[in-house]
Write a structure and sequence with these properties.
heterotrimer; A mainly alpha (455); B alpha/beta (589); C mainly alpha (273); A: 455 residues; mainly alpha; Cytochrome Bc1 Complex, Chain D, domain 2; 18 helices; B: 589 residues; alpha/beta; FAD/NAD(P)-binding domain; eight-stranded mixed beta sheet; six-stranded antiparallel beta sheet; 19% strand; GMC_OxRdtase_N (chain B)
Chain lengths: 455, 589, 273
């Protein structure tokens, strides 16, 4: 008994020591990935462009629209995490940061006082940024951004997630090696373009943060295409972030120009951007150069998986072919089932009986990644609340779909969603009224509340 | 005392089609622009969203997208000795309201006037002599030619996403298009719409009689489309709720679908809603405008908005009203025939023949604003005015716009308006009738005009505008001619029943039933400052920094729906302002 | 011009389902036979409806009058089955009744040429309120009973007189139509006036002269407007003529010429028939 107590006491002591070490041991910070001269300065616009690639504005924009003033909550299962003020204000922003401090944030998720940052900040991906882009970003934020004295609400998550030393432990497991390794050698045609695409996707674009599944401790399952699960789909804000690699589904099916158009304008011949990706287009990808968009598209095309994955969704709903669906809807038979009837009464006006919508205007539902997503939240939320495309330079129209949540009961939404998930050759699991009810209440509970009033 | 706001380079009155176009074009010069719209802001979603827009009572009957007479209306009389009375609730015509203006609730008919319509007086005098022009008729040339406007028609059609079939591209005749149209530099941006049964039946009958049917051109997109501003249209789904409604489907060309989200991105463009311009303020010498006074509804006060250029882009009637209230141009006096502001108001002379087919199912609720087939065989350039005894012409057309039941179900004449027989009649005939319509010109006359009413005032205490309008023999002869051409076509289709409705001798203007919202003239354009209010660039002759857009510029009404010409004139004027006026502000003529 | 005006059709008079609005009315039209996906709450029967605007007497008149304007007999529902009186009550209590959108400043010339449009100083609600007692008085004087208690034939004759706004027994300059009204009225048991005035008198003053056209227009609105406005109960008005309501989606059907569209209507709220 005493022995046992001794062992327990020893373990407790070790635990305390580990915690103390976690708290007080200085961080080992990642070195610059390239030796640049101390007086190296970025070309004009390079820093701003690196900021655009990294989509810093998407999260750090102030609530009143002040650039980089911070304060917007990023929803996490543990509570809201508030984006910090990253303007050069010395007191409320990052004005006192040295270049090394800044690099530590970007690479290691450690702030200038040695605090570990929550991984809502995607340093796990930014670790692949080049030193030139780090220096460019630092220059941009220090020299080109107006300081703002906006004081951001302190993030306070529930215990034990407010114990930041836990993040340090998490990082040991969750972070990959720093630095970007070009995956394509000279023997590959187009290697330079593909490597640029790989850099953009793995590094600043941090596509993996949403589009890669996470493990039990919420670590991203893979950071490069060598990892078979990299970019094979994740969940963000309850929505499926689609698998970008699976053949036979969007967006792998799109040709590269359509993929680039989607990123540039939020719309293409098949789809309209929705969910969190809307912000990515709005603040980031619409401003990417055409070469970078095409490089991204080429890279994503290159890393597609040849073999279709087994769907893990329970699917007991028979799938209708495109022809069967078109006939069913076109006949307008009063005896038709509720699902297709609801489609005719609510959706057909824009998406049409062939489910093809209209290029760049009304998204195609056949093969649509949001429609057939394993987690149907995106589809159901879109039916309930509608969706809006962001205004972009080339395609300025904020095309908006109205919400139908006020018009349809949970049962009706479930019937409708199940129908579109299994029409035109779509083959995805049924949606239940309980699913819809859960999504309705999740939307109501979210900080933004209703996206659209029932008017 | 009015609040004074910081000066703008350009202030635009009204944010409908012309205000949006001028905003877009002038913003390219980097000037600071403010558009003042007296109505509400309007976006496709939520304001026109399915299904709430599909409400016949609210929008078709109670005019939810239109201006409320309580806020703005006119008084109307038919003759000079009648007392004009307020147009208390809407009927004969439906001016729009809010952002997008009438561009929200139109059907989308987009035509180019015939070449001879732009120089109608010269055309008549050259071919038949001035003596065939009735004494009280005041038709005039426009001061601008079709050839000059052609690139601007093209611009508007490609901006608004017009579906249609060209008949004459640079002189080359194209099968299936309108063989009588003026040459165009290229075809329409979108192919014609699919056609409804009535349109096909009419076209077949017309073809069999040697006439030349072609698809009616219009701003209902037949396919997805993106215009020069990057704005987008989706394909029309023939919902049957076009005229009087905002488009649920991003399918109807409108300021919303074709301009506004692109315009709102311009940092040098701003707009304010619920801001009604009360008058244009003039410099002491009256030769330039200094800005506008408007009522800021939100602040509850009058505001003086200084500006270097004032664009009147309100509805035609309101442009004229503002000019009369502001002292821009000498008011027209019918006693002397002198004065220009308010001169040459005109309307549109329409008629139609209904046909009933017991055994044909027309599915009348399937329709769009502009679906249909037309003929121009009796157009204004095809008629021997001397021989027929009238000046004018019509296009003739069939196509299904809607099957909304409150707005009316065509019933054989003699069917009672209520009771058991009415009920039986609607059950029997709904979906079994169609009509062929004529849409014709309306000339301008000495005693048809606009001025300020001596009695009635609006909610701001300003004199209301008075409309003096009646039908005239020349135009009644024209529409009776069309009846004589349409009825044989209709008869050849072998309907079970048919009946006609065309204005006859002595017809008096009736303000109650809806006729058309093609109120034109009142600020006619022209080459002669004694008979026109604005010059060929839509610039006020008297106040050179005021430009007046819209159909108020028409010296008489064309045989077509006006929007095509309104759009072309807006682009034409915008180019003149950008390239000629802005570098050197002065009278351009 | 075609002279093929159809002759008066013989219709099958049925017992009026006067106060049976609601599900019973739906059953009459066969609508209830079609499977309905929604369980709409049964509305209060018309005879128990508590008007928002009308007094009990006004409501009784409107029930009886609309039942003649769109009778229950024959094919299709009537004003009663479609709950038109409820619609009119709600409209008059709302913006329409108050002429909220209209220009209602004086001076007024209510006796102006009708072609110059509505010129009464009264709102639609005021027109109903003031006209109904005049019509009831007319019925009492001429036919010895209130409108609702007259036979359907007599009610029709009163409505025809209202449509002309001419007292059929008051004038000598009446044309053939007026003669018909007199005959119809007499057949219904009207007590003929003993002394005919020299000229026919309007039943309603100039300020009220648009009453009939308002009533008829509002009745047809209540028959065909979206059910959310209180009438067109279960979309029976739409179903009867084959209108699809708020479907608004037919791209696939434009080219299907002369094929009846088979599917019933949908309402703005999503009600299906």
């Amino acid at each position: 008994m005493i022995k046992l107590l001794r062992i327990l006491a020893a373990l407790a002591l070790i635990g305390v020591v580990v915690v103390l070490l976690l708290i007080f041991l200085p961080h080992h910070l990642t070195e610059p990935q390239e030796d640049l001269a101390a007086d190296w300065t970025p070309e004009e616009g390079q820093g701003e462009y690196a900021m655009i690639l990294g989509d810093c504005a998407g999260c750090h924009i102030g609530a009143d629209g002040t650039p980089f003033a911070g304060g917007q909550p990023i929803d996490s299962p543990l509570g809201p995490i508030y984006a910090s003020n990253i303007t050069p204000d010395p007191e409320h922003g990052i004005g006192e940061f040295s270049l090394d401090d800044f690099r530590a944030v970007m690479y290691d998720g450690v702030d200038e006082e040695g605090h570990d940052l929550y991984p809502a900040m995607p340093y796990a991906n930014y670790r692949k940024l080049s030193e030139r882009d780090i220096r460019g970003l630092y220059h941009y934020f220090m020299e080109e951004v107006e300081p703002s004295s906006n004081e951001v609400t302190e993030t306070s998550l529930m215990f034990p997630f407010n114990m930041r030393f836990g993040i340090r432990m998490w990082k040991w497991v969750a972070l990959s090696d720093p630095g970007f390794e070009p995956p394509f050698g000279d023997e590959v045609e187009n290697a330079e373009m593909l490597n640029r695409g790989a850099y953009l996707v793995e590094g600043p674009g941090h596509c993996g943060a949403c589009h890669t599944p996470r493990n039990l401790i919420f670590a991203q399952k893979g950071f490069t295409a060598e990892d078979s699960e990299f970019l094979t789909g994740g969940v963000i804000d309850g929505w499926t972030a689609p698998d970008l690699r699976q053949e036979g589904t969007q967006p792998q099916d799109w040709d590269q120009v359509e993929m680039a158009r989607f990123l540039a304008t939020g719309r293409n011949a098949h789809a309209g951007v929705s969910g969190e990706m809307e912000l990515v287009v709005q603040y980031s990808t619409q401003y990417w150069t055409e070469n970078d968009l095409l490089a991204t598209a080429a890279y994503l095309d290159e890393i597609g998986h040849d073999v279709a994955r087994e769907s893990d969704a329970e699917d007991d709903v028979p799938s209708l072919s495109e022809e069967e669906t078109v006939t069913l809807l076109g006949d307008a038979d009063p005896e038709m089932a509720l699902g297709p009837r609801l489609y005719l009464d609510n959706c057909n006006a824009c998406h049409f009986s062939d489910g093809r919508g209209a290029a760049n205007v009304f998204p195609q539902l056949a093969g649509n990644a949001t429609v057939t997503a394993p987690v149907p939240r995106g589809l159901v939320q879109t039916i309930l609340e509608g969706a809006e495309l962001p205004s972009t330079e080339a395609y300025p129209y904020k095309l908006r779909m109205p919400g139908f949540g006020w018009r349809l009961s949970d049962e009706e939404v479930a019937e409708l969603a199940t129908f579109v998930r299994n029409a035109w050759g779509n083959d995805a699991g049924a949606v239940t009224a309980a699913d819809v009810a859960g999504i309705r209440s999740a939307i109501e509970d979210s900080p933004e509340g209703h996206g659209e009033a029932a008017d | 005392m009015a609040r004074q706001d910081p000066k703008k380079d350009v202030v635009i009155v009204g944010l409908g089609w012309t205000g949006s176009i001028l905003g877009m074009e002038l913003s390219k010069e980097g000037v600071e622009i403010l558009a003042l719209e007296r109505g509400e802001d309007r976006k496709t979603v939520p304001d026109f969203a399915y299904p709430n827009m599909i409400d016949e009572l609210k929008y078709g009957i109670r005019y939810g997208t239109m201006q409320k007479p309580k806020n703005s209306t006119v008084t109307i009389r038919r003759t000079l000795d009648e007392t004009a009375l307020p147009y208390r609730h809407l009927g004969s015509f439906l001016p729009g309201d809010g952002v997008g203006g009438a561009g929200v609730h139109w059907n989308g008919h987009t035509w180019r006037p015939m070449e001879n319509e732009f120089r109608l007086r010269s055309y008549v005098e050259e071919n038949w002599g001035a003596e065939i022009i009735p004494e009280d008729m005041q038709i005039q040339d426009w001061g601008v030619t079709y050839e000059e406007l052609e690139p601007h028609f093209d611009r508007f059609e490609w901006m608004a996403g017009i579906s249609g079939q060209a008949g004459n591209v640079n002189g080359e005749m194209i099968e299936g298009g309108n063989p009588f149209e003026a040459p165009r530099s290229r075809g329409y941006p979108l192919p014609p719409l699919q056609q409804t049964a009535d349109a096909e039946m009419f076209a077949e009958a017309a073809r069999a009689m040697g006439l030349h049917p072609f698809p009616r051109p219009g701003a209902n997109a037949s396919e997805a489309y993106r215009n020069e501003y990057g704005m987008q249209l989706g394909p029309c789904n023939f919902c049957g709720f076009c005229e009087r409604y905002g488009c649920i489907n991003y399918s109807k060309g409108s300021p919303q679908t074709c301009v506004l989200d692109a315009l709102k991105r311009k940092p040098n463009f701003q707009y304010k809603t619920n801001s009604e311009v009360l008058r244009v303020t003039l410099a002491d010498d009256g030769k330039t405008a200094t800005g506008v006074i408007y009522w800021d509804e939100e602040a509850g006060e009058e505001v003086f908005q200084p500006a270097d250029i004032v664009i009147l882009g309100a509805y035609s009637l309101h442009n004229v009203h503002l000019m009369l209230l502001s002292g821009i141009g000498q008011p027209y006096d019918p006693a002397t025939g002198e004065g220009v502001t308010g001169r040459n108001y005109a309307y549109q002379m329409n008629g139609g023949t209904s046909m009933f087919f017991k055994d044909v199912d027309f599915n009348p609720f399937i329709g769009s604003g502009t679906v249909g087939m037309s003929i121009d065989d009796y157009a204004i350039n095809q008629i021997d005015f001397g021989a027929e005894g009238f000046i004018g012409g019509s296009y003739i057309t069939a196509g299904r716009a809607n099957g909304q039941p409150i707005r009316g179900i065509a019933l054989p004449s003699g069917t009672p308006g209520w009771g058991a027989e009415w009920k039986q009649g609607i059950g029997e005939w709904y979906g079994h009738s169609m009509s062929i319509g004529s849409h014709g010109s309306n000339m301008s006359y000495r005693d048809v005009y606009l001025d300020l009413d001596p009695t009635y005032t609006d909610k701001h205490g300003r004199p209301m505008m008075r409309m003096t309008f009646n039908w005239k023999d020349n135009d009644i002869r024209m529409t009776q001619f069309m009846k004589s051409k349409i009825e044989p076509v209709a008869e050849s289709m072998n309907p079970d029943l048919m009946q006609s409705s065309y204005k006859g001798d002595g017809a008096m203007y009736d303000v109650r039933p809806y006729q058309t919202t093609h109120n034109v003239g009142g600020a006619p354009m022209g080459a002669d400052p004694s008979t026109s209010a604005i010059n060929r660039y839509l610039q006020s002759w008297d106040v050179h920094n005021v430009f007046v857009m819209g159909a108020s510029a028409f010296p008489q009404n064309i045989q077509y729906n006006p929007t095509g010409a309104v759009g072309a004139l807006a682009y034409w004027a915008a180019e003149a302002i950008r390239k000629d006026y802005m570098p050197n502000p002065r009278p351009l003529v | 011009m075609s002279s093929d005006v159809p002759s008066t059709r013989d219709f099958r008079p049925t017992r009026r389902g006067f106060l049976q609005g609601g599900a019973a009315g739906a059953a009459l039209t066969g609508l209830a036979a079609r499977a309905r996906a929604q369980d709409a709450a049964e509305p209060v029967p018309l005879d128990q409806y508590e008007p928002q605007f009308f007094t009990a007497a006004e409501y009784a008149f409107v029930l009886a009058a609309t039942a003649r304007l769109i009778p229950s007999e024959g094919d299709g529902p009537g004003a009663i089955e479609t709950r038109v009186p409820v619609y009119i009550d709600l409209q008059l209590g709302g913006d329409f009744g108050q002429a909220a959108d209209w220009y209602m400043e004086g001076p007024f010339q209510p006796d102006a040429d009708p072609l110059l449009g509505y010129q009464s100083p009264l709102t639609p609600a005021e027109v109903y309120r003031q006209a109904i007692p005049v019509v009831e008085e007319f019925c009492q004087n001429r036919m010895g009973a209130g409108f609702a208690d007259l036979s359907p034939e007599d009610q029709d004759s009163v409505i025809k007189a209202l449509e002309q706004n001419k007292d059929p027994l008051s004038g000598s300059d009446s044309g053939a139509e007026d003669t018909e009204v007199v005959e119809s009225g007499a057949g219904g048991g009207a007590s003929g006036g003993s002394a005919e005035p020299a000229t026919s008198q309007p039943i309603l003053s100039a300020e009220l002269r648009d009453f009939f056209s308002l009533l008829l227009q509002n009745t047809k609105e209540g028959f065909f407007a979206d059910p959310m406005y209180g009438g067109n109960y279960q979309m029976q008005g739409w179903t009867y003529i084959g209108f699809t309501g708020a479907r608004a989606s037919f791209k696939e059907w434009v080219d299907k010429h002369d094929v009846p569209y088979p599917l019933g209507p949908v309402s703005i709220s999503g009600e299906r028939a």
